[in-house]
Amino acid sequence: MTTTHRPAEAIVWRFRERYMRGEWDSVTNQTGEFVNEAGELVTRRNPIPTGARIKIMEGEFADLITTVRGRKHGKLEFLANGKWETTRESNARAA
To answer: Where are the beta strands (DSSP E) in the chain?
Structure first.
């Protein structure tokens, strides 16, 4: 006996789509636009938090995977080769 729950499938599918767009990603540094349950467009910016694992995208530390240790002068602070370094938030991605 097979039972199909169409309303439940639709709810799960909407949650999956929202998840795939990064709505609940607390590490993303990209602006996201989401349609909430009321049908309103919501724009959210999630700064990269201290303690997040990141990958440096460009420059001297390109491809380095490290942990955000704090912020200094508006930049992310991390440890590389035993030395404190900084990078722009736009140069980091979730690892």
So the answer is: 32-35, 41-44, 53-56, 65-72, 75-80, 83-87, 92-94
